[in-house]
Design a protein that fits this description.
Length: 680
Amino acid sequence: MILNDFLKKEIRFIKGVGPIKGQLFNKLDIYTIKDIIEYRPFRYDDLSVVTNVCDYDDNQNKLYFLKILDKRVVNSKNYKIIKLRAIDNTSYCDIVFFNQDYLKNKFDIGKKYYFFGKFKNEFNSLTLNSPDFYKENELKEKILPVYLLTAGLSLNYFRKVIKNVLNELNTFNFEEIIPEFILKKYLVENYKKSIFNIHFPDNFENCLKSLKDLKFREIFTLHLAFSLMKEKKSQKNNIKWINDFDLIKFEVLLPFKLTNDQKKSIIEIEKKLNLGFNINILLQGDVGAGKTVVVVYFLLKAYLSGYKSIIMAPTEVLAKQHFNSITKLLEKINPRIIFIRGGNYKGKKDDLLLLDDEKPAIVIGTHALFQKNIKYSSTAITIIDEQHRFGVKQRMELIKLSNCPNVIVMSATPIPRTLSLTVYGDMDYSVIKEKPAERIKIKTFVRSEESLFKIYEFIKKRVDYGEKCFIITPLVDESDKLELKSAIATYEDLSTNVFKNYSVGLLHGRMKEKEKNKVMEDLKEGKVNILVSTTVIEVGVDISDATVIVINHADRFGIAQLHQLRGRVGRGNKPSYCVLVHSNEISKTTMKRLRILENSDDGFYLAEADLLLRGSGELLGSRQHGFGLFRFVDPAEDRELIEQVKKEVNALIKIEKIENIDKKLLDYVYEKHLKDYSIL
Ligand code: ADP
Ligand code: MG
């Protein structure tokens, strides 16, 4: 068998796995041999040193070498306990196993065994609860990898499977794909050696080195992939832009003056457009920075040039909002705008036909705009709003379906630099830092639930002044249903008690689009003053006289999300307030997170802080969401390495044009990172 076939072999065909266990591996995103050898241990257990019982550590698993003195089985109605009395040179101790009857005959009185676990001092006795154990001659590996597993896959079994796979792998030779001089410069060892070291390390130092080398390889090939993608996409197009439209003409149409950063972004993007190569730009800006008006410039420019342009929002509410605000912004020009609502409505077919009618128009809608059967006449530019809702692959799909040469993606929140280098590595950037001048900083307070009464009194006062208020109900662990329940309960409670003299509205994800729109309209028009909502409100909703947002269970949200929610207020010229309400038991780290928000309203700073505090996994969502680009790299902890390797890749591309780069490397890059992106 050749190496590649071996690496692609499905996990269920490995000895000792089979179809049923195979599915459990699939749950971990392990489908092939390649996947399992690149499954990174999340921790290592150090079994190289034996600790004396008297020096026990109740925080960390340690290895103890103990002689068994006595063995008892305790039966009760619900469980069986095996209890061992043991001793080393320093102390007596106990070892217990719950409901593991089969272990009864594993231990002989008078013999010595290794135990690996954490001692707890309970009932005046030191006890190890369900430790790993090894016979005296059984402990061969001194450092053991620990993997994140799923029910039905035990650690020992998983290690055995990996061992089998690696034994077989050992018979293959790996060809090096990354240029020799780069590997030498960074002292990167060969791939096979690295893989062996991370699963069966002989010491910690080598293991960390190998992990770093694997990260190096991963970043290197990913960035090369991005460069390839960029090059593919930056072909020349034949869009003919009109000449007599510019910033000055645009600003005359607007009810406000553009900020310097807005102008800078428009000029930057326009420069690229004028070169005639396809553009692919990520427009970053904090909440409320005014990204929309920047892209409206290009929607209008395309329209005036005789083309269609598209703006897509992640939700119907947002799409409607874009429709309203764009119609208003451009009212002096009154361009043809085609608004495609979601769902099936009367006349939708005819609306969709308009998209292919060869006449210029600005098209607004949700992702329903991109379906395989929808045809577009020549489209000059596509805007995707609030990108964080879409994964990398989904973004690629959308871009492909729009069949449009120029794409601007607007991010909902600032993205930490290292993450943009990775997740958006195929795009150029434009950043808006400055916010419109009349904005007043939102005052943020961290309060415990006990203060709710006072908070409600405060809300009443603001509403009496004609302002509006959001009350965000808790984020319930991934369960729509519970979230809904908590929102409805809060709504019913507040509207019949505390706020019975006010008009309270309710917004949640299960409502029909029509109902959602109605509530938002009511809020805008003042028919509703207090809106109880789940986090569906998060996305870009713009109500200029909303001045208070109360976020319940703020401790459950990440910094970036809280910042995004906070951005729902302070959009006008009145002082605004954000109250982060936390439950009574709150950990120090969580408190720290909330304090950071209290002290800063700089979205770029907060995004970095969030990344550092939470790690990138949580920030990006799981691999299933299409963000999981890495097996080894953690964008949060590997920031420096990412920057370093990226420079190296760029330098390589400069000296050797992409087509001259070794075919083996390109094939590898294609196979590993690009195959799924049907855009190529
Ligand atoms: P975001 O960047 O969060 O998408 P929006 O584009 O929705 O922000 O803009 C937020 C609000 O600020 C809108 O009501 C918009 O009309 C207003 N706005 C945008 N630019 C300016 C400006 N230069 N001066 C005053 N108001 C502005
Ligand atoms: Mg927006």
